[in-house]
Amino acid sequence: MLKFRDKIQNLLIPAVLFLLPFYFIRFRCRWLSLNLVEIMIIPIFLLWIFDGKKKIRELAAEYRNYTLGVSLIILGLLLSVLINKDYYIGFGAVKGWFLFPIIFSIILNDYLGRDEKILKKIFLSLFLSAVFISMAGIYYKIAGLLSYDGRLHLFYDSPNQLAMFLAPGLIIGALFFLEKKSKYSRTGFGIGLALVGLNIFFTYSFGAWIAIALAFTVFSGLKYIKFRQGIIIFSIIAFLAVAGFLNQKEKFRSAFFPNERSSLASRIMIWKSAGRMIEDNPLFGIGPGNFQEKYLEYQKYFPPYLEWAVPQPHNLFFAFWLEAGLIGLVGFAALIYRFFRDNKKAISNNRLFGTMCFGIILYYLIHGFIDTTYWRNDMAFVFWTVVAINIYLANPSRTRMTDAELKSGDKKQKPYL
Predict the structure, then answer these.
(1) DSSP string, 135-152
(2) Is the pLDDT score of 173 beyond 80?
(3) d(Cα 154, Cα 136) in Å, to the nearest integer?
């Protein structure tokens, strides 16, 4: 029987993941600002911490292989904030993009050991969140509420951001669809996939399309999905690409034959500016949340910018270097290395959920070459949720100490095998 605390967490944890797109709803009290997702995590954290059962040595045992990566990221962030002296923005970014997501992932990992059934709920929550947003996206498309260049973006700052949030949901939904045997289940997932896929299509985010296509190609090549299924998925993506070409000829043409005002030309200019910032601040970066301001300062070194509102450098790795310093970038690399090492075990122990973890992180990295797929609240939570699940799946048979053993301080049984 689950305790009352666990039952509450069973409801709140999936709810947090479902409501990730609404992190823009904020509540301010003087200098303190919390968004809706962070407020929901506070009672989850209090229920967890006041229970008094989780010991530091247990956390160290659970995350021992990730301690180096996480520690370097946090150290890099703190040093970057202190060196650059933009404390309010810097610590606010650390809170929203790292502190709350990491705390959530630790609580989630602990809870998985108490009730593994929540695994399916977690992935379903991410998929249903994408479906819910996609239903709104269909209305926006029909109503003509689009960007100036005819692309779908809803309440996100750009179509690319919408595509980045929906892509993990598409990967989850596709793998659930391929796994299900029931006709009704496949129909339900098929309808949800169609909605999410249409929304990603209408964003005309070529980076998302390419990353998703490559992710499924890797699935097929590594036999995570059957070759026939891979061919079907590839054919669907190819069809959408042709349809997109017919609808956005200029955007496609500029992608392969860039002109001086194309999206690619704009990205190249942003990357050059980011590279100059790295040259000037190679060790500590410019501080989290400061790219937009620094980007405008560096205008003097370049011809007139094609884009002026650029909160991130359109590259995941540049973003980590600039906002967490070289130390943070090394920590991120160590974290990713450890993730993929553990993911082999995760897939071996649970093929479906392990493959979902693999696909989502692979998508982050591929799309991360041309967009910043981490440095937003919703994407940060998805990232650390997947890391926590991957850690659990890599060693699901570990033995946890019972509440009585924890209370008595019995040292005969190890927290984890």
Answers:
(1) HHHHHHHHHT---TTS--
(2) yes
(3) 8
The residue among 105, 101, 76 whose CA lies nearest residue 288 is 76
Helical H segments across 222-290, by residue range: 227-247, 249-256, 263-280
Decide if 199 contacts 155 (C-beta within 8 A).
Answer: no
Token readout for 261 is: 């005002």
Q: Which one-letter amino acid corresponds to residue 200?
A: I
Query: Is residue 104 within 8 Å of residue 44, measured between CB atoms?
Result: yes
Per-residue DSSP letter, 391: H
pLDDT tens-digit readout, 195-213: 999 999 999 888 898 898 8
Q: How many residues does the chain have?
A: 417
pLDDT (tens digit per residue) in 212-227: 888 887 877 666 666 5
Give the integer Cα–Cα distance in Å for 301 and 102.
38
Distance from C-alpha of 381 to C-alpha of 55, rounded to nearest angstrom: 24
Q: Residue 28: in which H helix or E strand, if any? A: strand 26-29
Tokens matching residue 131: 């479906």
- What's residue 217's pLDDT? 79
Between the CA atoms of 391, 117, 110 and 328, what dihedral angle is there, to the nearest 10 degrees?
40
Contact 161, 376 (CB under 8 A): yes
Residue 379 and residue 363 in contact, taking contact as beta carbons nearer than 8 Å: no
